[in-house]
Every structure is written in structure tokens, then in C-alpha cells.
Amino acid sequence: EQDRAVYCALLHILVDLDPEPDLRVEGGGQAGPPSGRAHGDLSLLRRSSLEDREKEIREKGSEILREQLDAAKKELKLKDKECERLSQVRNQLEQELEELTASLFEEAHKMVREANVKRAASEKRLKEAQGKIDVLQAEVTALKTLVLTSTPSSPNRQLHPQLQSPSTRGAYKHHSRNKSMSGTIPSLAGRAEPSSVSIQPVSKEEREMDSVLYAEFLLWKENPSLERSSAFLSRVYSEDVGPCLSFTRSELSQRVQSAVESNSLTIEPVAVSAPPVVKASATECGGPKKCALSGMSRLCRHRIKLGDKGSYHFISPSSRARIAAVCNFFTYIRYIQQGLVRHDAEQMFWEVMRLRREMTTARLGFYVADQG
């Protein structure tokens, strides 16, 4: 295309040349026909001029073509360099893509392995938890059975280990309540040896329900609570709980009653063989031979603590029996309040009456001595 453009330019130049120029005579006259020699010289001159101009044009065209060729070569080199650079970039990107793909696959395999390990550990923990749940459910079922079969009149000794004999419980030092009294009341001379006590025939006990007391109990049972606002508990407080916990030390008696109501009273046996530790407050709390509630000199085999941080108070067997009778009553009505007693209303009522009789008996000074 460049050669064609050069030749077209040369053609235009040749066309523009005047092939037969006008011959003018000096002095402004008409030019006559040229002579033959002059015409030949003119033709030679014209041919020579044309050859010179053609040669010049060819040289200029060659120079232009060389410049364009050099420019094309430079541009081609630049494009080659650009292609090489892009090829390197492509290779680098392909390598990075391969590395990224391999890293992603490795990370995915690692996550799958960790997920499998965690799933196996979770399944193992789930099985262990299910096993523990089964064990706990079995224990709860057994505990419910023990609670439902345990009443203050016939407590379950597995549920209440403090009711076991000293030889059975050993050095167990927790709340030990007085064993519930049944029908007969031992006489004051009941301190004889167990071998000398004769077995008396027990007559059948008759009973008759008081309609007023039963109506008050039924009204309380519809919405059981430990508030004194009900007629049932108000009567029990005034006739049984208050008198049973009324001791010479009135201030300490009130604290004992509050601890029994809040279920924070602790009764512990005292080892007789161990020498007592006398503290600064021993005069106020009584001692091993002085009851802190009655103030009378008695051999104190038990001590009480009001709450978790209170001091210990030594109590006589009679005071312990009175406190234990009140504790038995509150324990049973708490069972009723919590829905753990599955008897009918009449059986509950007679159990409450029996517990009230125990409080009255203990208040009058009768109790069962600990044979230990």
C-alpha cells in the first residue's frame, strides 16, 4: 500500500509536467516551429529532468518506507514485549490460582476432618449425658418413692439417716429427730433397763373426727401455705406450736420458732465422752449440763444451731423432743404443700391430728428417751 501511494504520487507529478511547452521568441514575436536539433535537445533535457525527479522521488519514497518500516519494527518489538509481559502475568495468575485451589481443598478437607472429630466427640458426650440422665431419672424415681412412703409417723430410715440408732449411723452428726410416738405413752419410771420392761397388750384406739377442725383443714388444703392467716394454722399455732416452743428463755424461744418455720434449724448429737469446748458465749448458750432453753441443769446430749452462721446451744432431751415434734409437723405440712402426699383428705387430717398430739405430749414433758 505504501508503494502504491508512492507511485500514484509520481504519476501525478509526471502528468503535471507540460509535455510541449510554448516556445516564445524574444522581443514578443510569434514563435515559429522549432528546428530539429533544438527539438532533440529539449527532449533530452526533458528526459533527463524526468529521470532526476523520478530518482529523487524514489529516494524520498525509499526513505519514507524505511522510516515506516523502522517504526513498524519498533511497534512490533513493543507489542512483543507487551505480549511477553501479559504471558508472564497469565502464568503467574495460573500458578496463584492453582495454589489457591490446592489451599482451598486442603482447608476444606481440614474442616471436614475437624467437623467429623467434633461430631464424634458430641455424640460421645450425648451418649454420656443420656446415660447420666437415665441414672438421675432412676434416682429421682427412687427418691420420690422414698418421699411418698415416708411420713412423720413412719419415716423412711434410708431417707432420714439421722433417725437410725447411734450404733448404725456411727459418727453421723446431722439433724436427729425424736422418733415419732405411737399410741402408748411411757411412764415416768420408764428409765429401767430394756430387759426389765414387760410388754403390755395394746388396746385398740378409737377416734372421732371433729367437724370444725376437719372443715378448717379442708379449707386450708384447697390452697396450702405456711401463712398464719388461715384458720387451720392459726389454731395450730395458738394451741400447739406456740405452747410447745415456749421456754424460759423467751428470746431464744422466738428465734428457735423462726428457725423451725424457715427450715434452718439444725440438731446435732453431742459426744458425751468428748470434753466440751467452752467458749466465751458458753454461759448464754448453756453447756453440756445446762439447757440453754429451760435454764435447768440437765445432761445435754444434743445441741442446736439457728441458721448456718449461728452459735450452738445445748439442749436437754425434753427440749429436743418438743422441738422435734414441731419439726415433724412442719415437715408433713410442707409435704402436703409440695404435693408429695398422695393420701386422701381424711388420712391427711388424722396424720395432722396425730402430730398435734405429739406436740401436746412433748409439751407436757413426755418423750421417748434415746436408748443409745
TrEMBL record:
<feature type="compositionally biased region" description="Polar residues">
    <location>
        <begin position="149"/>
        <end position="168"/>
    </location>
</feature>
<dbReference type="GO" id="GO:0005085">
    <property type="term" value="F:guanyl-nucleotide exchange factor activity"/>
</dbReference>
<feature type="coiled-coil region">
    <location>
        <begin position="62"/>
        <end position="146"/>
    </location>
</feature>
<dbReference type="Pfam" id="PF25555">
    <property type="entry name" value="RAB3A-like_C"/>
</dbReference>
<keyword id="KW-0175">Coiled coil</keyword>
<feature type="region of interest" description="Disordered">
    <location>
        <begin position="149"/>
        <end position="203"/>
    </location>
</feature>
<protein>
    <submittedName>
        <fullName>RAB3A interacting protein like 1</fullName>
    </submittedName>
</protein>
<dbReference type="Pfam" id="PF06428">
    <property type="entry name" value="Sec2p"/>
</dbReference>
<dbReference type="InterPro" id="IPR009449">
    <property type="entry name" value="Sec2_N"/>
</dbReference>
<comment type="similarity">
    <text>Belongs to the SEC2 family.</text>
</comment>
<feature type="domain" description="GDP/GTP exchange factor Sec2 N-terminal">
    <location>
        <begin position="52"/>
        <end position="143"/>
    </location>
</feature>
<dbReference type="InterPro" id="IPR040351">
    <property type="entry name" value="RAB3IL/RAB3IP/Sec2"/>
</dbReference>
<dbReference type="GO" id="GO:0070319">
    <property type="term" value="C:Golgi to plasma membrane transport vesicle"/>
</dbReference>
<dbReference type="GO" id="GO:0006887">
    <property type="term" value="P:exocytosis"/>
</dbReference>
<feature type="region of interest" description="Disordered">
    <location>
        <begin position="22"/>
        <end position="44"/>
    </location>
</feature>
